[in-house]
Write a structure and sequence with these properties.
Length: 304
């Protein structure tokens, strides 16, 4: 029997789900919801932080990260995981930095880089998933990919386009019965908690960004736009163990990850969401604590 509540997450690389959505996934799985994760690339061009893995070529790193995400999702308890279009269909596009130090699109990338993917083709891979899983809530990045990584931006484009196409009765009936996603959410950092964490980190002599001045920069979406927060506290152990599975990418002793751990421990800290499209949350003075709040979840009927 299909669960009443169904959640779909679209992330760019292995580790993104654990660094940004682990508490959300763990909570809804524990509550009996259907949770599906779609990862768009293998993360073949991620920065390798472990010296003993520095010899891995991009294809080898991609295969290695398959093992890492399997371990992480095992800790979270998620079993419904797919790579967009199949394993290795889209390659990590890589990332560079512009003169201001911001994330930017590299001049050179693989031929099958996700950034270069045909938008309709990539979206149709996701349309098939949406129509099969029938999620009421879809989570992805904001239009800037949260911080500008080209694969995050492309994941946003693909997810938004797919949600639109999946609801159209005239689009690709061969991909299944049309399905309307009720609410699309864009994940982001809980800016107020990151500011508190930054202050606490500096008091401890920890500088997460030694080469950049973050005093005047935003740590996430405008707090006034945050519509929901899933607290990390109840799932802190799961979050940390899942992220630690990515030994090629995550070093808990580095200043940034020490700062990240400080943020997670602040009471009330959590994974923040803004409304990207669809049904608004019921009006409230504070962000909702349930991503499905206000959505009718009793039926699974496709669009007429």
């Amino acid at each position: 029997m299909i669960p009443d509540r169904r959640l779909l997450l679209v992330h760019a690389h292995p580790d993104d789900e654990s660094s940004q959505s682990a508490a959300t996934m763990a909570r809804y799985l524990a509550e009996g919801a259907q949770v599906t994760l779609v990862t768009c690339t293998l993360g073949e061009l991620g920065e390798i932080l472990v010296p003993e893995l520095a010899h891995l070529t991009p294809p080898e790193l991609g295969q290695h990260r398959i093992g890492e995400i399997e371990e992480a999702l095992g800790i979270i308890g998620l079993t419904d995981h797919l790579f967009l279009g199949g394993v290795g269909r889209y390659h990590d596009s890589g990332m560079t930095r512009d003169e201001a130090g911001e994330a930017a699109v590299p001049d050179v990338m693989p031929a099958n880089a996700f950034w270069r993917a045909d938008l309709l083709e990539a979206a149709d891979h996701l349309v098939a998933v949406i129509r099969d899983r029938r999620p009421q809530v879809l989570i992805t990045y904001d239009p800037h990919g949260n911080y500008g990584h080209p694969d995050h931006i492309q994941a946003h484009r693909v997810a938004m386009y797919a949600a639109l196409l999946a609801a159209s009765p005239s689009h690709r009936p061969d991909l299944g019965e049309p399905w309307q996603v009720a609410r699309v959410l864009w994940n982001g950092h809980n800016a107020e908690m990151w500011k508190k964490g930054f202050e606490l980190a500096r008091e401890q002599g920890i500088d997460p960004w030694p080469d950049r001045d973050r005093d005047s920069e935003s740590f996430g979406p405008d707090p006034s736009t945050v519509v929901a927060v899933i607290e990390t506290g109840p799932w802190l152990d799961v979050c940390r163990r899942a992220l630690a599975s990515y030994r090629s990418q995550v070093d808990p002793d580095l200043p940034f990850w020490r700062f990240y751990q400080i943020v997670q421990e602040i009471p009330g800290a959590g994974e923040a969401y803004v409304l990207g499209h669809g049904q608004p949350f019921p009006k409230s003075a504070t962000p909702a604590s349930d991503l499905f709040e206000g959505i009718e979840t009793g039926g699974v009927s496709a669009l007429a």
